[in-house]
């Protein structure tokens, strides 16, 4: 693929991030400000002077539009400001604390989902329309249909409470505590990837060049590994973007059920307590993560798919 | 269309379709009657066992959810202090047991199902209305309008939308109508993209050109000629959107942001059940089963409809 074409395409795409981010920030900012109540409402009623001082300190007494532009100026320097709810913490510190946890769980879940999902899909495709295929795909559909907040309590109940094999929740970076959250988070993604892989693999297996490869006597595993796998994985690659967004969403629930101190749990707490800066910080941060991942997935897709050329004149 | 959803194409039906080719039937000297797209699709759907069984189960579920609470001896918010947190028991009449304050789980599950299914239908209709209008307008007018409109969709697409639903719920309170709107308002993007793609293909067909030549105005062309021809694809996505929406609602209710007491939904019940699952697992298992079965069936029906209606399959 043409190097210059990729560079130019990447540059355009990265520039295109700016309006997206601006829309994201604007919607999130005004939405959370429209919410009734403020960050200092939940505690006991403050004397008006103190309240006024607090508002002044955090610039909450200024007109909303002025606050908006102040915020924009502030986040250009990558400073998300102090958290209202977690005293003495800045939002940057909270993100730096929560994100590694979320990233570990999400990343492991993604790895697990990719390898298990594609393997299952390939097996089903090779045994198309047999009992193996039907049962695997039936289970995959179940994986899509059971919400993870149903799977999680059931897994805790059976594996942690009744059997006592694994801890029911909490977080200390040890592997036993990671097993249940990672598996729960991965299950629906495994199911989607398995279905995608099966579908595309079946299509690929019916193509002429696979027949040629078989005809010249190539053993089955080489036909799959060398010729069929790469094109069959293309839909899976393009699914990685939405899958990541799904994992981030899912992590909100998973982190709550398993009491994991990740970003998702900060977000829900922040939204309920009108912690404006924390909510904005998490939304913007995850927005950037999703956008960047989609961008990487695009590049990966182009690299794997010889049909895509960025240097073509449209 | 290059969405991943379009790429998962198990289509053994193609072979069967050839067997029923009307021309083959004509050659065999049989009575041949023209079959519309819809009749054709219906026959194909009926051959899909998983979809038919799912359809029957959903029909029964619908009847249960509507009629069940009416005939049950218990009220959803009635607290039976003699039987708090009691396991399923036919003698006391609590077939699914009761929760910690003695409310009948069966009735609460059925009443929760009303809300969950209602949200599924209404929020899907909201996203349908927005998505179809938006996509049809963008695709039909094309050019600059299209580029601006679809760029906006791309931008919104990149946003972490579940966070926005959570924000919407926090901002506007937990009124049920707002749940419909909030979920519907963020779920229309797929619909808009698909409809736009289809419209791009449709707007250059002869019948649209004919309508234009007859002097029909743009609005009427979109309403009378474009949208009716989109219905097949749209129906497939409606069926696939319903379970997604039910899932989002139960997700919100699970986080405590969805419907509020005394109303209840499957998500809220699963949340309640998960709190007590160690002492009273039945409070979790029954609502969870109803929710899962419903999602499972809708997904199978949607898959079946896609196989039956997706034009790609008839190629």
What pair of chains forms the biggest interface? A-B, 57 and 45 residues
- How much of the polypeptide of chain B forms β-strand, as a percent range? under 5%
- The count of strands of chain A amounts to 0
Shape label of chain B:
elongated
Shape, principal axes of CA atoms of chain A:
flat
Average residue-wise pLDDT of chain A:
81
Number of helices of chain A: 11
**Total number of strands of chain B:** 0
Radius of gyration of chain B using CA atoms only = 23 Å
Distance between the termini of chain A: 16 Å
Number of domains of chain B: 1
Give the helices and strands of chain B as they follow along the chain. HHHHHHHHHHHHHH
Predict the CATH topology of chain B. Answer: MetI-like fold
Are there runs of chain A of 5+ residues with pLDDT below 50, and where? none
Describe the main β-sheet of chain B briefly: none
* Poorly predicted segments of chain B: 1-19
CATH class placement of chain B: Mainly Alpha
| Helix residue percentage of chain B | over 70%
The ordered string of helix (H) and strand (E) elements of chain A is HHHHHHHHHHH
What would you give as the CATH superfamily of chain B? MetI-like
Tell me the Rg of chain A in angstroms: 24 Å
Descriptive overview:
The complex is a heterodimer of chains A (314) and B (315). With 314 residues, chain A is mainly alpha-helical. Helices cover 75% and strands 0% of the residues of chain A. Chain A has 11 helices and no strands. Chain A has helices at 3-34, 48-57, 64-76, 91-126, 131-145, 148-162, 175-205, 208-215, 220-257, 263-272, 276-304. In chain A, helix 5 crosses helix 7 (175-205), helix 6 crosses helix 7 (175-205) and helix 8 packs across helix 9 (220-257). Chain A is flat and about 85 Å long. The model of chain B is unreliable at 1-19 (pLDDT under 50). Chain B is an all-alpha fold and 315 residues long. Helix content of chain B is 71%, strand content 0%. Chain B has one domain (38-313): MetI-like (MetI-like fold). Chain B is elongated and about 75 Å long. Chain B is built from 14 helices and no strands. Chains A and B meet through helix 1, helix 5, helix 6, helix 7 and helix 9 of A and helix 7, helix 8, helix 12, helix 13 and helix 14 of B.
